Amino acid sequence: MSKIVAVHSYKGGTGKTLLAVNLAATFAKDGKKVCLFDLDFRAPSLFAILKVNNAEFWLNDYLNGKCDINKVLIDLSSRLEGNGNFFAALANPTTEAIREMSAKDRKWEMRALGRLLSLRNTLLNDREFDYLVFDTSPGLQYSSINAIVTADFVVVATTGDRSDVDGTRRMLRELYNLFEKKTGLVMNKVLDPTSKSKRDEMDKRVKNVYQVPMLGLVPCFCEVLRAEGNLIFVQDKPNHPFTKILDEMAKKIENNEVN
Amino acid sequence: MNNYQCFVRLNKPSTISTPVQHIKTTRGNTVTREEILSKKPLHVLEKIRENLERLNEKMEVMIELQKHGHKDVQPLNDAPLDVMTLLSMPDHLRKTAMTICRCGRATAAEVAEQTSRARAVESAYLNQLVIMGYLKKERKGRKAYFYADRDSQR
After folding, report:
1. Of A110, A120, A146, which to mutate for an interface test with B (greatest number of B Cβ within 10 Å)?
2. Of the ranges A5-14, A111-120, B74-83, which one carries the lowest mean pLDDT score?
3. Residue A238 to residue A244: CA distance in whole angstroms
4. Are β-strands B105-106 and A131-136 bridged in parallel, bridged antiparallel, or unpaired?
5. Which of A6, A104, B57, B114 is the most buried (most CB within 10 A)?
6. Is the dihedral of CA A111, A114, A115, A116 positive or negative?
7. Angle between the B108-115 and B119-131 helix axes, to the nearest 10 degrees?
8. What pTM was estimated for this model as a whole?
9. pLDDT of B65-121, one tens digit each?
């Protein structure tokens, strides 16, 4: 079963953070114990979306070996309905921290990989988390590849945009395949309303072009844009089609049905 | 004295009659022939077996080096085993290196269990990764553990 899920994409702006936040929230709504990680150290955003201003320790500190991971986790369970547990580990958004993180050398990145890998023990085994969801930086760079190597399953967000298709295909072939990662593709911001036949056609296209299974197809919802990242969508709009799509994705991952 | 000579001498009856003679073992400590023959025969056999296993491992590495050519094996000191390095490795070594990354520390048998390849093959790849400077090797009794030394590399 996939316990560590990374959300990644080739280009920026494909909806990684939206998917990561809502996927984690969906798991939590289902009564799971979940932790959402902001591994986008170049452009941290979860602190803003989750409206946390008072973090004493950041994920940066954990990866720097300055503190225990338990010090980084912020319990946000009270924000969600139901009896699930929702935690977050945030990236430090200050310019100084971003500068510092982008100047790390290979040896540091190697130790960071070790620390990410050890989360399996500390969080999944010892603290009995059901899921860790990693939100990553786009493209091929250390922090994202570290996250991908650590993950059991990678959600790849992509749009139909020309600038994204080729890169995503190459990335799947030359990065994910080499690490033998289980992958599911999410087509985001799909413009056409999706009938069953249209969905099947898309599904086939994804399998042909990307040669990976499709995890989900997300139409372009104006309501999502209108929310301006101010709410956890699946929590605040339980009956919205977006929420239903996320429910299906979570179920597929949980039941290992992506293939 | 190599392992073979050591073995032959122990089995040669003519040398037993020689009075107290010191033998230098491969590890450098000196023992008398009497000690070897009377007190700890099992221990000695154990040592011989250990040495033979080491020889075997070295041969496996040599065979692997020949198989894949020398071009991808340049001995380095403490090369970091980071993700970019993993990406640039030949497929057969990446699989082994990834397993060590995940386990933290493992024997060739444990790696073989995860990769579904033969223990001897994994042993060869692991030793190759040690030569390349990506992994460290530590012996505990008869077992050899492999690990990526993340902490000493500051």
Report:
1. A110
2. B74-83
3. 8
4. unpaired
5. A6
6. positive
7. 120
8. 0.80
9. 676 655 555 556 667 889 999 999 999 999 999 999 989 899 999 999 999 999 999
Mutate to test the interface with A, among B76, B83, B100, B129 (most CBs of A within 10 A): B83
Rounded to a whole number of angstroms, the distance from the CA of A188 to the nearest CA of chain B is 28
Look at strands A4-8 and A131-136 and give their pairing.
parallel
Phi, psi of B147 (to 5 degrees): -155, 160
Q: How far apart are CA B91 and CA B45, in angstroms?
A: 39
Interface membership of A67 toward B (CB under 8 Å): no
Q: Do B82 and A114 touch (CB under 8 A)?
A: no
Q: Is the pLDDT of residue B153 over 50?
A: no
Count Cα neighbours of A234 within 13 Å in the Cβ-side half-sphere: 24
Lowest mean pLDDT among A79-93, A94-108, A149-163, B38-52: B38-52
Least Cα distance to A220 among A170, A149, A160 occurs for A160
- Tally Cβ neighbours within 10 Å of residue B87: 15
